[in-house]
TrEMBL record:
<dbReference type="InterPro" id="IPR036922">
    <property type="entry name" value="Rieske_2Fe-2S_sf"/>
</dbReference>
<dbReference type="InterPro" id="IPR017941">
    <property type="entry name" value="Rieske_2Fe-2S"/>
</dbReference>
<keyword id="KW-0560">Oxidoreductase</keyword>
<dbReference type="Pfam" id="PF19112">
    <property type="entry name" value="VanA_C"/>
</dbReference>
<keyword id="KW-0411">Iron-sulfur</keyword>
<keyword id="KW-0001">2Fe-2S</keyword>
<protein>
    <submittedName>
        <fullName>Rieske 2Fe-2S domain-containing protein</fullName>
    </submittedName>
</protein>
<dbReference type="InterPro" id="IPR044043">
    <property type="entry name" value="VanA_C_cat"/>
</dbReference>
<feature type="domain" description="Rieske">
    <location>
        <begin position="8"/>
        <end position="109"/>
    </location>
</feature>
<dbReference type="InterPro" id="IPR050584">
    <property type="entry name" value="Cholesterol_7-desaturase"/>
</dbReference>
<dbReference type="Pfam" id="PF00355">
    <property type="entry name" value="Rieske"/>
</dbReference>
<keyword id="KW-0408">Iron</keyword>
<keyword id="KW-0479">Metal-binding</keyword>
Length: 348
């Protein structure tokens, strides 16, 4: 499987990166990550070029890594600075280094050409930084499923009625049409469900004595970021433009493609109500974790079926407009990147 490489991918939570050497896998590659003495994050290919021992099994000397097998030492750029027993260091004694950045509580890695890394391309959510909102980190959920299947799920309001009845749905949403469009940033899918019972997550807050209007906007930006804006208000009180006056939550999913068949969903939520209530923090995170584990069961079963029936093709339904747009967008981005790389290689 091909991946978009000139892009930022979430690697782990920033708080998880410390002085120790930690190995991660992304796009099928292993990287070793650690925090330098100046507080910034370094990432190197997790493979000594001598006998291929993972550098994560070595030890630090300041900001350098000493291989745990024969003591070759590498700096943060991946250059070998010393080899025990010899003075000459071959030009091939080097490992790849990766640009890193931090945002939204996560450590991000650039998997493509280092000179193209641009922090302005990092995904952001203004409400995360706004003191009028509360950002609550969730977890890193491992899915034995392809990352595009997870993004399909996160652009699919229609499954909510059937999978998340105890948290995010009520029966009234099963036949409400789904809208989708390609935007400059990515793909957006949305629908409003009017004058119906509030979903369990909002019913628990006690804000609604009767029915509510509710919305769901599912927003994808390449390569693997999904932010779901959902909320509720009194019937007839809110519009698309004024929905922030109601109860509003952003459920954020920043996905690490581990390889072709596995991914990690780093999720958090940001809300505009009861922002000083730690009990609600825990309650909402527990409800969301339950819903995302329901998705995990579905997606892992689908992955197993895809492995079992590699020649079969899925049928497409009207509700698949958003996922179809996302897949076409990703395919075009990957093809354009591969063609550009091939042209550069041919020219060279």
């Amino acid at each position: 499987m091909s991946f978009l490489r000139n892009a930022w991918y979430p690697l782990c939570w920033s708080a998880e990166v410390g002085e120790g050497l930690a190995s991660h896998r992304v796009l099928g590659e292993r990287v070793v990550v650690y925090r330098r003495t100046d507080g910034t994050i370094a990432a190197l290919e997790d493979c000594c070029p001598h006998k291929f021992l993972p550098l994560s099994m070595g030890r630090r000397h300041g900001d350098r890594i000493e291989c745990g097998y024969h003591g070759m030492t590498f700096d943060c750029t991946g250059r070998c600075t010393s080899i025990p027993g010899q003075e000459v260091i071959p030009a091939t004694a080097a490992v790849r280094s990766y640009p890193m950045a931090e945002r939204l509580g996560l450590a991000w890695i650039w998997m493509g050409a280092a000179e193209k890394a641009d922090e302005s391309l990092l995904v952001d959510l203004p409400q995360y930084h706004d003191p009028a909102w509360k950002a609550v980190h969730g977890a890193s959920l491992y899915n034995a499923a392809n990352y595009l299947n997870l993004i399909d799920n996160l652009l699919d309001p229609s499954h909510v009625t059937f999978v998340h009845g105890s948290t995010l749905a009520t029966p009234g949403g099963r036949d409400v049409p789904v809208q989708s469009e390609k935007t400059d940033a990515g793909v957006t899918v949305w629908r409003w469900i009017l004058d119906s019972p509030p979903i369990p997550v909002f019913a628990k807050t006690g804000h609604f004595k009767g029915n509510a209007d509710r919305w769901h906007y599912y927003m994808f930006t390449p390569p693997s970021n999904c932010i779901i804006d959902f909320g509720s208000g009194e019937p007839g009180a809110l519009t698309e433009e004024t929905r922030s006056q109601g109860l509003q939550i952003y459920a954020c999913h920043f996905i690490t493609p581990v390889d072709d068949e596995n991914c990690i969903d780093h999720w958090l939520h940001v809300r505009n109500f009861r922002i000083d209530d730690p009990v609600l923090d825990a309650q909402l995170n527990a409800d969301l974790a339950g819903a995302f584990n329901e998705d995990k069961a579905i997606l892992e079963a689908i992955q197993e079926q895809e492995r079992r029936y590699p020649e079969r093709r899925q049928i497409r339904l009207a509700i698949d407009g958003g996922p179809n747009r996302m897949r076409m967008m990703m395919r075009k981005l990957i093809e354009a990147e591969e063609q550009a790389a091939a042209g550069t290689s041919t020219a060279a």
